[in-house]
Amino acid sequence: MSDIPEGFKPSGFKGTYLGEVGPYYVKPEDAMLKVGLRITEKHINYVDIAHGGVLTTLADVTLSLQAHRAEDPALNVTTISLNTNFLGPAKLGDWLVAEGKVDRMGKRVCYTSGRILSGDKVIMTMTGVFNIMR
Fold this sequence. Notes:
Helix content: 10-25%
CATH class: Alpha Beta
CATH superfamily: Hotdog Thioesterase
Order of helices and strands: EHEEHEEEE
Number of domains: 1
Strand order of the largest sheet: 1-2-3-5-6-7-4
Radius of gyration: 14 Å
Structural class: alpha+beta
Shape: globular
Strand content: 35-45%
């Protein structure tokens, strides 16, 4: 765990899939919960960068987490739409930090946006729409 930046703790996310594509780490900052991921061998594709599916999953996890935490008690949400823009690669060993925010909250739908950074470089932007299961 020594290669995990200070302030990040294991996420505790449930489910086999997230366990397989993680491990994820979280860090509370301001009104958001940042999500971190270290790129390891299992995340790398045939051109030696992180597979797009790994980054897309990180985007979905991060944005849905913001929607989930938007109210107290926490909301159950499912993804309606996820749009991603790949701006740069993530390489083996990179520490990624995903940030997200709620842009608009309705009774049944939540709109979110965010970005994924590798160091100070933005490698992805994303927007998501989530169904609120009230």
